[in-house]
Amino acid sequence: MTTIVTDAGFAADDWNRGYAKPNAAANDALALHLEPDTDPDQVPLSPGLEMIRVNFPSFSDGRGFSIARQLRLRGFAGRLRACGHVLADQYAMARRSGFDEVEIDDDLAARQPEDQWLARANWRDHDYQSRLRG
Amino acid sequence: MYVYSEFDNAFLAERNAQFRAQVERRVSGALTEDEFKPLRLMNGVYLQLHAYMLRVAIPYGTLNSAQMRKLAELADRWDKGYGHFTTRQNIQYNWPKLTDIPDMLDSLAEVGLHAIQTSGNTIRNVTADHFAGAAADEIADPRPVAELIRQWSTDHPEFQFLGRKFKIGVTGSANDRAVIKAHDIGLRILERDGETGFQVVIGGGLGRTPMIGKVLRDFLPRADLLPYLEAALSVYNLLGRRDNKYKARIKITVHEHGIDAIRDRVETLFERLRTTFVGLDQARLDDIEAAFAPPALRGASVAAFETACKTDPVFRSWADTNLAEHRDPDHAIVSISLKAHGATPGDASSEQMRVMADLAERFGYNELRISHEQNVILPHVHKSDLPALHAALKAAGLATANIGLISDIIACPGMDYCALATARSIPIAQEIATRFDELKIENDIGPLKIKISGCINACGHHHVGHIGILGLDRAGVENYQITLGGDATQDAVIGERAGPGFSADEIVPAIERLVQAYLDLRTEPAETFLQTYRRTGLAPFKSALYPEARAHAA
Ligand code: SF4
Known about the structure:
The complex is a heterodimer.
Chain A: E1 2-6, E2 9-12, E3 31-34, E4 51-56, H1 63-73, E5 79-84, H2 91-97, E6 101-105, H3 106-111, H4 114-118, H5 128-132
Parallel strand pairs in A: 3-4, 4-5, 5-6
Antiparallel strand pairs in A: 1-2, 1-6
Chain B: H1 6-28, H2 33-41, E1 45-47, E2 52-57, E3 62-64, H3 65-78, E4 82-85, E5 90-93, H4 101-109, E6 127-128, H5 143-153, E7 168-171, E8 185-192, E9 195-202, E10 214-221, H6 225-239, H7 250-257, H8 259-274, H9 280-291, H10 303-311, H11 313-322, E11 323-325, E12 331-336, E13 347-349, H12 350-363, E14 367-370, E15 376-382, H13 386-395, E16 410-411, H14 426-439, H15 442-445, E17 450-453, E18 467-474, E19 477-484, E20 496-497, H16 504-521, H17 529-536, H18 539-545, H19 547-553
Parallel strand pairs in B: 6-7, 7-8, 16-17, 17-18
Antiparallel strand pairs in B: 1-2, 2-5, 3-14, 4-5, 4-13, 8-9, 9-10, 11-12, 12-15, 14-15, 18-19, 19-20
Bound molecules: iron/sulfur cluster.
Iron/sulfur cluster binds near residues 414, 421, 453 and 457 of chain B.
Keywords (chain B): 4Fe-4S, Heme, Iron, Iron-sulfur, Metal-binding, Oxidoreductase
Protein name (chain B): Nitrite/sulfite reductase
Organism (chain B): Sedimentitalea xiamensis
C-alpha cells in the first residue's frame, strides 16, 4: 500500500492505470515512470500523456526536483508525482519544483505522519522565488 | 547596508521554527540520524570531533556593529567565549549543545543573521571581495549582486539536494580578492560598451583535485544573471556525478564533459528559463543597490595622520602593512589582524568582537567586514581617526602589524577541531608566526602568503598559497607537504609540489630554509617571494628544502 500526499493531507492512491517507461514505444503512453537519471529533454510529451511519476531512490538525491522543473518548462501540464524516499521536510520543495503530489510507502507514512506533511502545506508562503520571478 | 525586510524576517522566523521542530523530531525518532543530517547541515550544524559546531554566515563578509555584538553574545552565552572566522566568511562556534542551537538561531535572527546553507550539498552562502564598497580599484560594489543571489539561492526548491556543495563568489574589481577562480561559479563584474555585466567562471575549486575555473561566458548582461545561474545549477544537478563523492563537484563535471558541452547545455536551458523572469528580480536588485548606498564620507584634515606617521614608528609600521587604498583619498581601509604571533589564526574572543564593534561605530560608519584571509576589516576610516583607532586596537591586543606578511597565515581548524583532519594546522601556523617574529625579518621578507590545510579538502587554500602546507597522515604520523608558487588572485595558479613531506618537527625549519633561499635569490628587496619564484622556478628552492639530496648529487 502507498499513501498519496497533497496539500489536503493523506489519501489513497487513485491512479490504477499503470506506468510506461519513457522509451520510443511510450509515444502514446497515458503515464510515464521516470528514474532520476532521465534526461528531461528526452522524455516524449505526447498529447495523451496524463501523468508522470518521478522516482526518488533516496531523499538525498535531488535530481527529481530539476526533472520536474524542466518538464514544466517544456510545457507538461498534467499530473506530476514524486515517489519514493521523499521527506515531509521536502514537501515544499517538491511542490515548488512543479510536483502536484508525493507517493510514499506505509513505513514512511507511519514514521512521518500526516501532520508533519500538513505543516508544509503552506509552501506558497515565505517563498523567495515567487518574489523574484513573474 | 542591506537591512532585512519584513519578508526576510518572516522567512527566518519560519525557517528557525522548522529547524526547532526538526530537532524535536530527531529526538523523538521521527527523523533518523541519516535523514536529520542534511537538514541540520543546511542550517549550519556540523558534528565535529568533540561536539556539534554551528557555522554562521557573514553574508558576503559584511556586518554592522550590532551584528558583531550579537556574535560576541553567542560566544558568551552558548560557547566558550570565542569564535573562529573561516576562509569562507563564516564564523564557527565549536562547542554548542544541539538543543541550544534553535535558541542561538532565534537570537541571531534578531539582527538579521542566520546559518542557512553554510553547509550541506546546496548553494552555500555567497562570498564577496572584503573591500567591497570601499576599494579604490572597484568597478562596482559586488554586494548587491551577492545579496540578490542570497535571496535567489535561499531555500531554492531545485537545489537543496545537489550532488555536492556549490560555492559562488563575486568580485567587482579586476584585482581579485575573492578567489573567484577557485569557486564552483565565480562572477566578476565588468563593463563593456557602457553596459554592466559579468564574466562567469565555472568549475574552479581546491580540495583533492584542485582546478582553476574556466570561462563559461565572457560577458553576461546584468539582467540575465539569475536565469543563467539557474541554468548552470540545473545542468549540474542532473549531470554531476552521484556515484562517487570525490568526483561530484562541478569542476569534475566540467572536466569530464568539457567546457563547450557544458556551455551548450547551459545556454539552451538559459533561453528557456529567461522568460520566467520578467523583471521583478531587477526591481529587487535596484532596491538592494539603494540599500547599499555608500555612507556619506566626512571631510576633514588628514594632518593628524601625517604627523603620527612621522613621529610614531609603531603606528607607521602598522599603517604600512594594515591599510589599503580607499576610493576616497582621505579615507583608508583598515585590516585588523586576527593573527597575533602565536595565536590561533581567525579566532576572536567575545571581548575583541565587542571592541571591534565599538570601534566600527566610533570610527568606521558602523561597518565591518570579514575577509577570507580570516581578518576583520573596517572598510571606511577617515585618516585623521587612524592614530586613535590604532591606540584602541593596541590596547585590545588587535594592532598586530602583519597583513600580507609571513605571519598572516590562513590555517584551517585541522586536527584541533575537524573530524576530517589528518594533521594539525593551527599549531604549525602558530610556530611559524612565532619563529619569524623572533627572527625579526618579517618586514624584510615582505608580502608572502602561507596557507595551511589539515587535510586534502584544502579549506586552508594551501594550493593557492605562495607557500602551501598540507598536513597528511603517514602511518599514524603527521607529515607536511609543501607546495610553492600558488596564487589566489586574478592570475590564479595552483602551486607545485616541492617534494617529500616533513614531520611536525621539521616543517618550521624547512619553511625557514625556503625563506632564507628567497632572501638570497631575490634581485632586490622589492622583488617579492612570488616574483622570485616565478623567475627562478622550483629548482633553487628545492635544493634549499632538501640539502641532503643536493649533497648526494654532488
Ligand atoms: S582542510 Fe580538512 S582538516 Fe582542514 S577544515 Fe577542511 S576538512 Fe577539516
